[in-house]
Amino acid sequence: MNLLHVQQKIEYLEHALKKITPHVIFLCAKMHNLSPKELEVIAIIASGTRFKDIARIDNRNIKTLSAQKRSAYLKIGVSNDVEFLHYIYWLSDKAIYATNEN
């Protein structure tokens, strides 16, 4: 993989993350009946913050955060972070489209 290809992927991910608003995360949680803790965990993932940092700041167990993530992903129907971010990006596009339609 060359440097240009890596740079393009980084730029794509930066663009995708900027489109993910708290509204879209809340919409996802509501659509999939996520618990408040599951909502918190997917918001952490979408923000790009590492579990290790959250665990240290909030004095929470990484295993607990991981279990909440697995539970949320099961409800959403994704199996990893990449699928989740693609789904949120897609949902963000749909939310923007619906807003522009009205």
Automatic annotation (TrEMBL):
Domain HTH luxR-type: 27-92
Any coiled-coil regions, as ranges: none
Annotated keywords: DNA-binding
Gene3D superfamilies registered for this protein in UniProt: Winged helix-like DNA-binding domain superfamily/Winged helix DNA-binding domain (1.10.10.10)
Pfam families linked to this entry: GerE
SMART domains attached to this UniProt entry: HTH_LUXR
Top-level taxonomic group: Bacteria
A biological-process GO annotation: regulation of DNA-templated transcription
A GO term, aspect molecular function: DNA binding
SUPFAM superfamilies (UniProt xref): C-terminal effector domain of the bipartite response regulators
InterPro entries noted in UniProt: Sig_transdc_resp-reg_C-effctor, Tscrpt_reg_LuxR_C, WH-like_DNA-bd_sf
Descriptive protein name: HTH luxR-type domain-containing protein
Organism: Salmonella enterica (Salmonella choleraesuis)
